[in-house]
Amino acid sequence: MMEHLQSTKTLNNGVLMPGFGLGVFKVEDGAELVDAVKTAIQLGYRSIDTAAIYGNEEGVGRGIQLGLAETGLRREDIFVTSKVWNADLGYESTLNAYEESLKKLQLDYLDLYLIHWPVEGKYKEAWRALETLYREGKVRAIGVSNFQPHHLDELLKDADIKPAINQVEFHPKLTQETLYTYLNSHGIQMEAWSPLMQGELLHHPLITELADTYGKTPAQIILRWDIQKGVITIPKSTKAHRLKENADIFDFVLSDEDMKRLSDLNENKRIGPDPDNFDF
Q1: Residues tagged in the binding site annotation
Q2: How far apart are CA 124 and CA 119, in angstroms?
Q3: Residues classed as catalytic
Q4: Which CATH number describes the domain made up of 18-263?
Q5: Residues at site: Lowers pKa of active site Tyr (predicted)?
Q6: What are the two backbone dihedrals, phi and then psi, of residue 99, each rounded to the nearest 5 degrees?
Q7: How confident is the model at residue 26 (pLDDT cuts 50, 70, 90)?
């Protein structure tokens, strides 16, 4: 069980990954982003998640440099994730995309590199490139994002290395039970993007009721549910008070009954694209 903001999960290759971090999806490159990343590091966050398609790797890199300078931490104290975009899926093109991301982030290596979406007929070649990067020591762990069990089955037919992570949309309205069970049984760590359903869940009657019961905010209730489910979680925020609030979830425990009530909110409802039906 995670006990504090720097608690880690052990991935299937032995690498320790913080169980809670900062996501920067839809945060424009610029001063606000740089400041958010720097502030998160100052507040104790040790994991930052970005992607090539977000167009903000440069700002994330600057924020990391400033955060390290102001806290006296070293590069290896921070866990940095990025993702290869669909247009770059392919062996050589993925290797090139990786170098491009490193350059923008001003880093020598990434801690985790993911295939962003399971584009039919393309993700296997991209995976071969990720395996090469891993073998060459350029990345500490490799994984996927938005993969369903059948995508993983297909990938594993030819893969030499099993993905360490599958980062997917996951929240009480989309609990992905089949995938959750599959990942647990295959030793692949689940990671949640959009854990707060982009704010849509914050006014749900059950969640506000539990917030009152536990003396917490609705966001804290949902994020606590995530980590008690054993799912790595990366909520997005740019405001210091919200970054602090999101991380203040280690001083209470949801009862088994309340965990179940939250899981029972599932409606298989997505706010993001369906991994079995997307066209980008």
Answers
A1: 116
A2: 9
A3: 54
A4: 3.20.20.100
A5: 83
A6: -60, -40
A7: confident
